[in-house]
Amino acid sequence: MKIFFYHTPELTPVQNVADCAIAIDVLRATSTIVTALSVGAEAVQVFSDLDKLMQESESWAPEKRLRAGERGGAKVAGCDLGNSPLDCTSELMHDRRLFMTTTNGTRALEIIQASPSVLAAALINRRAVVDYVVSHRPETVWIVGAGWEGSFALEDTVCAGAIAHSLIADLNCTLEDIAGNDELTGAVALYDQWKDDLLGLLHHASHGKRLLRLDCQDDLKYCAQTDVLDVLPIQREIGVLVKNG
User: 48, 120, 179, 234: which has the highest count of C-beta atoms within 10 A?
Assistant: First the structure.
């Protein structure tokens, strides 16, 4: 198994040859997707384009849909929700489809959507992602960070490192055995440095600071947790993520 990490969708090769591709947007899209599915959402359908989201969701009955839109960390006008996992309650989400567009995370999912297996990962469901990879043993794994508008993001990189760190332990191999590129090696090093203070790292991250300015301290605390939800979002059809199993 070889694992490659790409910091942003823009840095991800256009020709996708991964057997399994994993999108990460710790702050906050994939954290929200995991949480929505954990409390009973029927599915999460992702869009990079807001107009397309509005058009597609119109075909669903209002009581069966929710629209989540975020740009620059703030909720988009006309949407029911922004991009906070803390808004995902069972009362709100149960048996409804979440139509979602965000600044960065939905683009990461879109760039890998042609892969045979597409997963959404965050720190909160790291264990579920690792268990899937260990069970299926794909030959090539791509991990794609959402970043922030084309730039490197600390929080996505540390999550990629956390996934690789657990895979090394579970597969009883070395970093050299599985690292497909330098970026993965750097991600593991970042996780090794910060694994005991992930919330502290999120406070250092530029997007973490942006969310703090928007009074989203509780979002950071929630997203910094590791292995708290045994939920694996997996792509059922292009752009549609459901709870695995």
Answer: 120
Contact 209, 180 (CB under 8 A): no
H or E stretch at 118: strand 118-121
Q: Which two tokens stand for residue 73?
A: 């960390």
CB 121 within 8 A of CB 187: no
Rounded CA-CA distance 152/34 in Å is 22
What's at 199, amino acid-wise? L
Residue 183's nearest CA partner among 161, 205, 150 is: 161
User: How many C-beta atoms surround the C-beta of residue 80 within 10 A?
Assistant: 16
In angstroms, rounded to a whole number, what is the distance separating the alpha carbons of residues 63 and 179?
Answer: 46
DSSP run (H or E) holding 63: none
Mean pLDDT of the 152-176 span = 97
- pLDDT for position 105: 79
User: Tokens 């009581």 identify what position?
Assistant: 63
- Angstrom CA distances, 14 to 5, 36, 114, stand at 14, 29, 11
Reading the block at residue 88, the tokens are 């995902």
Tokens of 35: 């949480």
